[in-house]
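User: Show me a protein chain along with its predicted structure.
Assistant: Here is one chain, sequence first, then structure tokens.
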Amino acid sequence: MRREEEGAGHRHARLEGLVLEELRALLRDDVSDPALVDVGITNLVLSVDYRHARVHFALRDGAAGSRARAEHALARATPFLRARLGDAIDMKRIPDLRFVFDGVAAPEGDA
């Protein structure tokens, strides 16, 4: 039984990473909404039953005033993102996406 739990944990973590990378790629390459230009996905937490995903996002430095605009744009893009996830990842059920604001990220290149 212990091995099954470990396998499920590894599978869960692997699927979380896969969904995270796919969402980042979709946001970078396929979404053309100008309100999402300064949005970056920082983390993803997938529920144990794979029905829900909490997607943490941040705005690039200097775009802090556009939080409400970005949240609205992400809500509009959610059906598109879920459909593309379904095409890209072979999953029994595509999770509902809930976007959570993480703050303002430092500009790229700063350490």
